[in-house]
Amino acid sequence: MNRPRILTALFFAVLFSFFALPAQAHKLNVFSWADDKEVYGEAFFSGGRKAKNVPVHVRDAESHTTLLTTQTDEEGKFQFVPPQQAVQQKSGLMITVETGDGHRGEWLLAADEYLSAASDPTGAEQPPGEESAAKESAVKSVDIEAVRAIVRQELNRELIPVKRHLAEGREKKAGLRDILGGIGCIIGLAGILAWFQSKKKKKTSTDG
Amino acid sequence: MHISEGILSAPVLISGGVVAAIGTFIGLKKIDLEQIMPVALLSSAFFVAGLVHVPLGPGSVHLMLIGLLGVMLGWAAFPAILIALFLQTLFFQFGGFAVLGVNTVTMSVPALCCYYLTRPWMDNRKTRPAASFIAGFLAILLASLLTASALALTDTGFTAAAQLIIAANVPVMIIEGCITMFTVGFLAKVQPEILHLEYA
To answer: Which of A3, A39, B152, B158 is most buried (CB neighbours < 10 A)?
Structure first.
């Protein structure tokens, strides 16, 4: 190998290693959770950059009809009251964020996630096992319901950071393995192409 | 500058796919045994460059090296970019498989334009730095405009999308201009045949 070739190879090696340093996937992520009144959410790019002032579309997860449209604030956060239609039909909410320059992210908020939080204070739904207990003593059951509601609300609030952490963890981070795997694929393809071309060359040289 | 899945309408996706297929076919025809390794090298460079975020300006942007690919590969930029985009979708969840064709076109066509526009000034030692800077800069500008048109053909207004994308990519244009200028300058010195230069 002559000197210029080695220099060129070195140059590209340095260029590559400089590139590989701040490796981050480039994706718009949406994360959403609910408490007893409202649905909250955030939109951010991988690496933590917030998606500011971009439209948020809330659709019915099954019928795909748009229920409401809102916008993220300066910190990439948004919040809205769950639409009546969705609450009545107990349908999930598909929350879509589009930045207008071609990025799009979505998050499915399952019906029970915001309905259980929303129906807390009234205690509309009870697990069947508790019905007998409720019959035993009215006073006692009221107390239990009140405690249950408070515990659920508190737990929900406490779990928000954990849920957010889980959502962030769900995002696949591009690692060295992905980078080397991709480069390996490209080199492999180049090898295949080179093999085909050398075969063709041989054939034409024997023909001619 | 990857457009995500689920934004564009079917006619835009299909026509993007057709143009990308034609470009890739012509590109593959033009690759000879000598050129395979430079194509693979630059395809890898494009693949990895997508991970380099530029933390400047209002948007979330990354390097693409489109100008460099165009200047060095010409038509072969089509297959190089297609393969790199495919692998970026596979490994990093950039864009999507359905929009692969459109994304290939929005980045390969600018590469090709830069190849033809700046080629006449590449052979001359004096005009080479300026020509390669312009290639790097212009490629991103053209890619921004093409991405905006793809979005405009579906629903978003062209001016709104173009403003957003160009504003976000101004730092990338300048950085890529510099990278292209230095890379071309360096290669012209040590290995001019990789650039197909007549006078080194």
So the answer is: A39
Gap from A173 CA to chain B (nearest CA, Å): 8
pLDDT tens digits, residue range A57-81?
888 888 878 888 888 888 888 888 8
Q: Tell me, yes or no, if A208 comes closer than 8 A to chain B by beta carbon.
A: no
Beta-strand pair A93-98/A66-71 = unpaired
Chunk chain B into consecutive blocks of 10 residues (it has 200) and report each block's average pLDDT, rounded to whole numbers: 83 93 94 87 89 70 88 93 92 86 94 92 86 93 90 78 84 90 88 67
> Quick one: pLDDT at residue B78?
95
Q: What letter does residue A119 receive in the DSSP assignment? A: T
Mean pLDDT of A184-203: 85
- The stretches of chain B forming alpha helices (DSSP H) are 10-30, 36-49, 66-73, 77-92, 100-122, 128-154, 158-190
Domain boundaries, chain B: 10-190
**Beta strands in A9-152, from DSSP E residues, in sequence order:** 28-34, 39-45, 55-60, 66-71, 77-80, 93-98, 104-109
Supply the ipTM of this predicted assembly. Answer: 0.78
pLDDT at position A25, please? 47
Structurally, at CATH architecture level, domain A28-170 sits in Sandwich (2.60)
Whether residue A190 lies within 8 A of chain B, CB to CB, comes out as yes
Query: B interface mutation test: which of A6, A29, A72, A101 has the most B CBs within 10 A?
Result: A101
Residues of B in contact with A102 (CB under 8 A): 1-4, 7, 147, 150-151, 161, 165
Cβ separation A101–B161 shorter than 8 A: yes
The structural domains of chain A, with segments of one domain joined by +, span: 28-170
